[in-house]
Amino acid sequence: MSDERVRYSDADLQEFKAVIKEKIEKAERDLQLIRESFINDQNNGTDDTSPTFKAFEEGAETLSKEQNSILAGRQEKFVRDLKNALIRIENKTYGVCRVTGKLIPKERLLAVPHATLSIEAKNMQK
Q1: Which GO terms describe its molecular function (predicted)?
Q2: Long-range CB contact pairs, 21-27, < 8 A, 24+
Q3: Number of structural domains in the chain
Q4: Range of 79's domain?
Q5: Do the Cβ atoms of 120 and 100 come closer than 8 Å?
Q6: Predicted structure pTM score
Q7: The pLDDT value given to residue 125
Q8: Is residue 113 in some structural domain?
Q9: How far apart are CA 102 and CA 109, in angstroms?
Q10: pLDDT of residue 2
Q11: What does the pLDDT read at residue 3?
C-alpha cells in the first residue's frame, strides 16, 4: 500500500465536518453582529454639539460604516468558503490540494478548514 493517501478517511472527514460546522456557527454569529452594528443608525444626540465636532463625528461614522461593510463582506466570503468545504466533505474531495492533488496536512486543515491549497501549491503562486 502506498504511503500517499488519495483522500481522508470517512472518520477524518466527520471530524473536519464538526470543526467546520462549529466555525460556521461562530462566523455567522459574528456576521450578524457586524450587520447589526452596520444597520444601527441610532443618533447619539450630537445635534447640540458644535458644527466642527459634528463634522468630525459624521466623518468617523461614515468611515466606521465603510469598515463594517468591508468586514461584513469578508465574513460573508469566509462563511461561503466554509460551506463550500462542507460540500467537498460530502463529495469526499475535502483536503485534496486543487493544484498538486496531494492531501493537505491535517494540521493545516484544522487551522484553515476552508483551505484548498497545500503550502507547496501556495508557495508556487508567489
Answers
A1: zinc ion binding
A2: 21/86, 23/82, 23/113, 24/79, 24/82, 24/83, 24/86, 27/75, 27/78, 27/79, 27/82
A3: 1
A4: 10-94
A5: yes
A6: 0.76
A7: 84
A8: no
A9: 13
A10: 42
A11: 46
Q: State the cell numbers at 15.
A: 471530524
Tell me the residue type at 67. Q
Reference 46, options 57, 62, 61, 59; nearest CA is 57
Cα separation of 97 and 103, whole Å? 6
Place of cell 456576521: 31
Q: Is 31 among the domain residues?
A: yes
How far apart are the C-alpha atoms of 85 and 108, rounded to whole Å? 14
How far apart are alpha carbons 108 and 115 in whole angstroms? 8
Looking at every residue in the chain, the average pLDDT score rounds to: 84
| Amino acid present at 41 | D
Looking at the domain assignment, is residue 63 inside a domain? Answer: yes
- Tens digit of pLDDT per residue, the chain (126 long)? 344 578 999 999 999 999 999 999 999 999 999 888 877 654 555 555 555 555 555 555 666 778 888 999 999 999 999 999 999 999 999 999 999 999 999 999 999 999 999 999 999 987
Instruction: Tally DSSP H helices, then E strands, for the chain.
Output: 4, 0
Euclidean distance between CA atoms 103 and 109, whole angstroms: 10
